[in-house]
Design a protein that fits this description.
By secondary structure, this protein is α/β, with parallel strands linked by helices. It has 18 helices and eleven strands. Strands 2-1-3-4-5 form a five-stranded parallel β-sheet, sandwiched between helices. A four-stranded parallel β-sheet has the order 9-6-10-11, with helices on both faces. It has a two-stranded antiparallel ribbon with strand order 7-8. Catalyzes the reversible isomerization of glucose-6-phosphate to fructose-6-phosphate.
């Protein structure tokens, strides 16, 4: 961990003593989380253990449907999309959608989260409706981006297969007893999967939200959950020094207090690049809050930033090295890449090129990371590394769970509610109002009377 003063310099590093001084706060935070889990309030902690039946149903569904459809399209946004993308990128072939041999008989996967008309239209224009299955994912069952895409997809399917067969082309993933999606699913006879009430959107990747698209693309969802269960055990450890989620949450918290208000996640792995996108939402939406638990205005929260190594060494790294001292960087380092790819030896007579040929690409990408780390240390920039032995379902499940748990601990340390998102809801409500949804007239009036209008 290159976060300590003796490694990167007194002024910008943490003193080990600070960790000792604050560790009891982290332990208290941990106790609160375990107590909340006991009370059934930490749904994400139950997921590695309570889904045997659901997993069996998901696997059976995937088995039944994978040959019937060429395309599986997720309609969802935020916590109902980012985990799906992260799993797909981490586990499946990078060119999965492009080549049939990369898919091993499974359907293509598209995650349509935005409502840019050009993107939405371009996708539908390429799909054969008869061979397309949509998974509409919305916990609230009313998010405008998702439901508007559903309305369009429904029309697209109905025109091709007829009104009475619409339900066969949709699976709804939603809350069991609230919102409109569940009602629609019942009316149309769609297959349904449920998101537990005590699991928030951004904590839901290991529910059917993320697991169905994973199963539909051949990902081993049991191993994902096994990885999460393994990490759950580690995260329940009471000894601060033996619990990496506690240590890391405290480091992030202390770094923030020392003015490192930007938290960069920088995987040196293409496979983990979308995990950083998923984490960006988790960290931002959970910790960016106006009020603390007592209702005092605090307006706090670290700003998460995604970077990709080595690519962003040639884009962001200059700023990280020499810009303001306001960042803590978390590297994700893969110890064993699945491919051993040699750099061919050639041009031995050209000093500036010949040296590459004694090495392979895995060595190169990790050397790039070590070099960046060293340069950051030289410039007294806080950085730390999470080592991933190799990227597979088991380690990915661990990473999801680890960062979710760390976020819950950080919420306790910051004394905010990490599980709500009033700012996001406010934006959603203005959209409903402006678009004329009943019950939201006051929001529409606010818009009509605003300077913005
Ligand atoms: O984490 C969250 O709660 C949000 O990002 C939601 O996932 C997002 O707004 C989508 O909400 P819903 O699943 O209700 O459509």
């Amino acid at each position: 961990n290159n976060v300590f003063a003796e490694m990167i310099g007194q002024k910008h590093g943490l003193q080990r003593k600070e960790l000792f001084d604050f560790k009891d706060e982290a332990v208290k935070a941990h106790q609160n989380i375990l107590a909340a889990a006991e009370a059934g309030e930490m749904g994400f902690m139950e997921l590695p253990h309570n889904q045997q039946e659901i997993v069996a149903e998901l696997k059976q569904t995937a088995e039944e449907l994978k040959d019937k459809f060429d395309n599986f399209v997720v309609l969802g946004i935020g916590g109902s999309a980012l985990g799906n993308i992260a799993v797909q990128t981490a586990i499946n072939d990078p060119y999965y959608n492009l080549f049939a041999e990369a898919r091993d008989g499974y359907p293509r996967l598209f995650v349509s989260d935005n409502v840019d008309p050009e993107g939405v239209k371009a996708l539908l224009a390429k799909l054969d409706p008869k061979k397309t299955l949509f998974n509409v994912i919305s916990k609230s069952g009313s998010t405008a981006e998702t439901m508007s895409q559903f309305l369009l997809a429904r029309k697209f399917i109905a025109e091709a297969v007829g009104e009475d067969r619409v339900g066969e082309h949709f699976i709804a993933t939603t809350s069991k007893d609230s919102g409109y999606l569940i009602e629609i699913a019942e009316r149309e006879g769609m297959k349904k999967f449920f998101i537990p009430d005590n699991v928030g959107g951004r904590f839901s990747v290991l529910t059917p939200v993320g697991l169905l698209s994973a199963a539909m693309t051949g990902v081993d969802i049991e191993q994902l959950l096994a990885g999460a269960a393994y990490m759950d055990k580690i995260c329940r450890e009471n000894d601060f020094w033996q619990n990496p989620a506690l240590v890391n949450a405290l480091i992030q918290y202390l770094a923030y207090k020392k003015g490192k208000v930007m938290s960069v996640m920088m995987p040196y792995s293409d496979r983990l690049s979308d995990l950083a996108d998923w984490y960006r939402q988790l960290w931002a939406e959970s910790l960016g809050k106006e009020v603390d638990r007592q209702g005092n205005k605090v307006n706090l929260g670290p700003t998460p930033i995604k970077a990709l190594g080595a690519t962003d060494q040639h884009s962001q790294a200059q700023l990280y090295m020499e810009g303001p001292f306001d960042k803590i960087i978390t590297f994700l380092e893969v110890e064993n890449f699945a491919e051993e790819l040699e750099i061919p030896k050639a041009y031995a007579d050209l000093d500036g090129l010949g040296y590459l040929g004694d090495h392979n690409f895995a060595e190169l990408i990790n050397t790039e990371k070590w070099a960046t780390e060293l340069a950051l240390n030289k410039r007294q920039r806080m950085n730390q590394t999470v080592k991933v032995p190799k990227v597979n379902e088991f380690t990915l499940g661990q990473l999801f769970y680890f960062f979710e748990f760390q976020t819950a601990v950080a919420g306790e340390l910051f004394n905010i509610n990490a599980f709500n998102q009033p700012g996001v809801e406010l934006g959603k409500n203005y959209t409903y109002g402006i678009f004329g949804r009943s019950g939201y007239q006051a929001k529409k009036d606010e818009f009509e009377n605003s300077a913005q209008k």
